[in-house]
Design goal:
single chain, about 325 residues, mainly alpha, two-stranded antiparallel sheet, 2 strands, globular, Farnesyl Diphosphate Synthase
Length: about 325
């Protein structure tokens, strides 16, 4: 990851400047909330992917800087809305924006970021990119709704879970990668390869997030352990464990996930069940498989510094602890 950061140092500095510029508003609260969450420790993986795929496709212009800032704005807008829906108190180890300024301000600033993103996209002059991000934000919203419908549903299987992951997380990462090819009008096969690369690492990223939710220290991960369970979310570690549990164990999980409060004892019970049934190991393995599949997608591109950096970034997704 350090080599990727070093490679993109100048371009990422330009992206940060663009982010600050796009946050300018006559309404002070907009800038204050936006700056708070945008400076709270995110790795900027989505902008990095857009910059690297642009490099891979030999793009020589400047529009990728603005579009990289757009991707981060869209992502940040979803985080603001997610934290309201999830009643989250922490985001990346800091107090969430909604816990500082309230739900109303968080939702409205999220709306501002969405609106500003599309304003910047229009200025980019590409109808194809505007259409791509429009379809992407539609799917993001659908993914959020699907996740809501799956809450506390013990019948959620791996297939239903992966559909939420695709729509809620992977689709924006896929769009970020695809834009790198759209900027230089690569052929259809290469554009599809970039998109599939993004879908695979986006899925792996969420798989790792869901595994870390049960095992990472709060200080490292930036949110409380077991937050997904508290929210009634059936993620892959629990789905796998539940599928392999005894009838008695399933009954206990049903009681826990439907309860209004999650006690420390109940969280420990679920964590032990997941560990006993290899839920974390299974989820990690699925993430590794996605990363290997992602790398294969880029074999149609020549070996170069940008492709190796994309491989390094993909490896980071499964090696991270936060």
């Amino acid at each position: 990851m350090d080599t990727v950061i070093a490679l993109l140092k100048d371009e990422m500095a330009a992206v940060e400047e663009q982010i600050k510029k796009n946050l300018t508003s006559n309404v002070q609260l907009v800038s204050k909330v936006g700056e708070y969450i945008l400076s709270s420790g995110g790795k900027r993986i989505r902008p990095m992917l857009l910059l690297l795929t642009s490099r891979l496709c030999n793009y020589r212009g400047e529009r990728h800087i603005e579009l990289a800032s757009v991707v981060e704005f869209l992502h940040t807008a979803t985080l603001l809305h997610d934290d309201v829906v999830d009643s989250a108190d922490l985001r990346r180890g800091n107090r969430s924006a909604n816990s500082v300024w309230g739900n109303q301000a968080s939702v409205l600033v999220g709306d501002f970021l969405f609106a500003k993103s599309f304003s910047v996209m229009v200025d980019s002059g590409s109808l194809k990119i505007l259409k791509l991000f429009s379809e992407t934000t539609t799917q993001l919203a659908e993914g959020e709704i699907l996740q809501l419908l799956n809450t506390c549903d013990l019948e959620v299987d791996e297939q239903r879970y992966l559909q939420v992951v695709r729509d809620k997380t992977a689709i924006l990462i896929a769009a970020a990668c695809q834009v790198g090819g759209v900027l230089v009008d690569v052929d259809e096969q290469q554009e599809l390869a970039l998109r599939e690369f993004g879908l695979e690492i986006g899925t792996a990223f969420q798989l790792m997030d869901d595994a870390l939710d049960y095992v990472a220290d709060e200080a490292d991960f930036g949110k409380e352990r077991g937050h997904d369970l508290y929210e009634g979310k059936m993620t892959l570690p629990l789905i796998h464990a539940y599928a392999n549990a005894s009838a008695e164990e399933r009954g206990e999980v049903a009681r826990i996930i439907e309860a209004e409060e999650l006690s420390a004892e109940d969280l420990d019970y679920v964590c032990r069940l997941i560990e006993d049934n290899q839920g974390i190991a299974y989820t990690r393995q699925k993430a590794v498989e996605r990363i290997e599949s992602a790398k294969k997608q880029l074999q149609i591109f020549p070996d170069c510094e940008a492709r190796q950096a994309l491989f390094d970034l993909a490896d980071y997704v499964v090696a991270r602890n936060k």
